[in-house]
Amino acid sequence: MVLDVAALIAYYNIDVWMGIIGSLLIAAAWSYEVWESIERHKSLIDLRFAGIYLVGTLMLLAYSLVIRNFIFVSINAALTVLVIFEIAYTVGWKFGRKTRRRR
Hints:
The chain has a single domain (5-102), classed as Monooxygenase. Helix 2 (14-40) packs parallel to helix 4 (70-102) and helix 3 packs antiparallel against helix 4 (70-102). The protein is built from 4 helices and no strands. The chain has helices at residues 5-11, 14-40, 47-67, 70-102. The longest helix has 33 residues, at 70-102. The termini are far apart. By secondary structure, the chain is mainly α.
């Protein structure tokens, strides 16, 4: 089976492609930030911001499931995973840093 890219592009409207490309760019940007945190061994995110952002993303994920919009489901699911990972890394980094000082 050969993937017919022209047929695939023609099948979806421009608004769908804008949503897909926008979703990929947002996920790529967050992925880069998470990668930078790991590479620098320093968290770049404020936990208060991350907590509020996580709640908002979860609410948007629930809404996108209700309206059955694949683009919003995919981007909100990806962002939820990335934010949870960033929060876990931040908490682990801050906790590990504090315990190293006590020794």
